[in-house]
Amino acid sequence: MEFKQQVTLILNDAMESLGYGKDDLNLEPSQHADIASRVAFRLASKLKQNPKDIAEKIAKTVAIPNDSYLDSVEAVGPYLNVRANRRYLDETVSRIRHETDGFGGGFCEGKIIIEHTSANPNGPLHVGHIRNSVIGDTLTRILKRVGYNVEIHYYVNDMGRQIAIVSWALSQFEFDTSKKPDHAIADVYIRANAELEAHPEKVAEVERLMQLVESGDDKTIERFDRAVGFAVTGIRKTLLHMNVVHDKFVNESDFVRSGAVSRIVNEIRSTGLTKIDNGALVVNLQDYGFEKSLVVQRSDGTSLYTTRDIAYHEWKGEQAERVIDILGADHKLISGQLKAILNAIGKNEPEIVIFEFVSLPEGSMSTRRGKFITADELFEQVEEQAFVEVEKRRPEMPDKFKKEVAAIVGIGAVRYDIVKVSPEKSTVFNWKEALDFEKQGAPFIQYSHARACSILAKAKDEGLWNPATTVDPSVLLEDSEVALIKKMAQFDNLLDQSARELKPHIFAIYARELADSFNQFYRFVPVISAEDETDRNSRLALVDCARIVLANALDTLGIGAPESM
Predict the structure, then answer these.
(1) Which spans in 462-532 are helix H?
(2) Which fold has domain 116-359?
(3) pTM, to two decimals
(4) Which of 443, 279, 421 minimizes the C-alpha distance to 356?
(5) Nearest to 173, CA basis, from 158, 157, 195
(6) 364-414: pLDDT as tens digits
(7) CATH (one of 3.40.50.2300, 1.10.730.10, 3.90.660.20, 3.30.360.10) for 375-556
(8) Quick one: which H or E segment has residue 115?
């Protein structure tokens, strides 16, 4: 980050002295330099000059201060290629060794509320839900690492139609207390839907429950709370298994009971965008580009999920500088309408991260019809297969070790395989590929960390390594050593980019590249077997740096970093 800042300052100084003024430098990674600028392309159209000539003038004008991290700025065609100097490399090594698990981040401030998962409490989380959880949790960890105060919400739909059906079902069918509660809830929910399809006249009983809960009927509220409580207890257990934690479970009913929903409806009325259509209150959002009007109050006076969501977002906007929602692609329309209404009533709008769905090779899923593979079942399958893989590699170890490592590797494989893909791209989760130690997924990154730990442990046992030893990083001159140091130095930059663009896959890809860079170094450079003591100590320190940065990267991705695999 400091290197990038210095490049920006030095190039802008050169451009100002040439009379070009400051401009967006379009700094980006390059195969031919540590960082490259395409600013000459931008200036060419403005100045009506050849971009190659502009780049050459800037490169000749650059003045590099003695205390900077820059070694050279060279014009190659229309590009400005910038290379870092030895000080940059040595200080990277020293800083990692000094800051250890604190290395990386801490350059942002402010409060963010992020909402993710928020699956309806009518059954367990399934594979379709967990991409939301993984993207949301990883993004939370990235935002926390860069320095934000992040509060994580799960918004509980505790009064909608689906919950009314669950509540009704609990009065009609036996609840299996021997099962995990969210699974037992799914059983009665599926039975209830079949019953309501067979006997449509019973739908009126469900609709009556919705009216009673909105009017504040204590007994009905208690029934809804009991139904939701069963499901949420099971869902929380599944999330913890995935290494996902929420700070608050916020009930949508809170905003009805507090009067916030009634107040929001009145605020929406005052915009002049509403009309009554067949007794329902609807909002005309054509000025915001939406042809379809949005219903915010039914003809019977009850509110909709969207209405309550608007009240929830108004409240969130008062609690934090930024509000971020992680939503599936099926929420594109409604999230756009939500933002439009918040804008119309002068409230803060959320930032929306839309993700396409993850599926299994088996196909699509439906909770209502009972056609789904639960996240719990997926984790069980993946951890069983991970145990087989660990057993292959470490047959001499006790089962306790194998099970512990299999759990860490299995969950890591699921999380990484999901988060490595850009949110806007759909993906199919293939557990066999995710667990392949050679495919550069989570097991590959975890194994790289374990390898670094193993190297250091062996050196320590042989009396060759003491972490307190003062080392000389300037002797790390091999290409793979320099490449590894530079890759570790990119930690903050990729972290910053992921946080700014709200795209956790950027950092996930970096973690894989970091592991690959470490393995290339270890493949080509002798470490413990190095004959020169200074070289050996410096290389062991570099291994220690890789261990630290790999652990920090894995932690940021919510993935365990085993010391042995």
Answers:
(1) 479-489, 491-501, 504-524
(2) Rossmann fold (3.40.50)
(3) 0.94
(4) 421
(5) 195
(6) 444 455 556 899 999 998 999 999 999 999 999 999 999 999 999 999 999
(7) 1.10.730.10
(8) strand 111-115
